[in-house]
């Protein structure tokens, strides 16, 4: 065996493995999304494929307990009000483990949605599989999905706007701009943003 | 002259009750890039409203006390600047000894990548810097007992 020949090849394989392992998991802009089925606060199961008749979905990882989420609550309701009729309804997914964050249990979600008069689905991601598949890291974390044939593709990932404290002071409305661009068939101005949010309360491993 | 006689009093007063200094991102950026510092810099991003952040604060406090000679902990509060009184009250109540700064920036997208490109924006998050080598460690999760020692050791 020629060790000199094998070594560089092994190093190459090793570095590829390391690179893959270091790559953050989850979807990127342009990726096709796998369908999922989760329990809604009305007790019924909701799948992403249920939204096939529309143009897309404003999927938001959100929760009951995060102060940033609370700050965005009205703005999320406004997004659904504005865009559901245009084919882009809001779908909220709560990824938090109720064992770690007791305020995010299913019963708490039901009463929160009632209190806030949610006009959209609020789904419990009990096994945290959807949050893991998407690579969601915090709440609120938005994934704007556009329908592509009978699949959904990620069109935008990130924040709702550029002012978490005060929506009226936000001068960049990332999600609105992205959805409007999709409706008008234009290119999305900013397809990926970041914002400070509460870490998703992952189950204790 | 008047200022000079007042200076010790001002300094003493600031030592007696830790006050949170409000900074903009340029201040933080300089601090993160400062290679002239001797000690390991431990920069933790937290907020009074973030439960896992509050939970891990004692780890930083204990580490700072035990390693005052070779490490410097800076707690960067991401509370809104109009809530600085709340942060000050929190610092006092918890008797925090570490340096506390409040980052007055509401547009995370303008600065998160400049701190660390792999950071998704969730807090708690901690960056540990060895200014002598420029090497860094970044963690986007709540630290448990012993984690900080391991992370610092990897940079020595």
UniProtKB/TrEMBL annotation, chain A:
Thioredoxin domain: residues covered: 27-184
SUPFAM superfamilies noted in UniProt: Thioredoxin-like
Coiled-coil residue windows: none
Signal listed as a keyword: yes
Signal peptide segment: 1-21
Keywords of this entry: Signal
GO MF term (any one): antioxidant activity
Protein name: Thioredoxin family protein
Organism: Pseudochryseolinea flava
Taxonomic lineage: Bacteria, Pseudomonadati, Bacteroidota, Cytophagia, Cytophagales
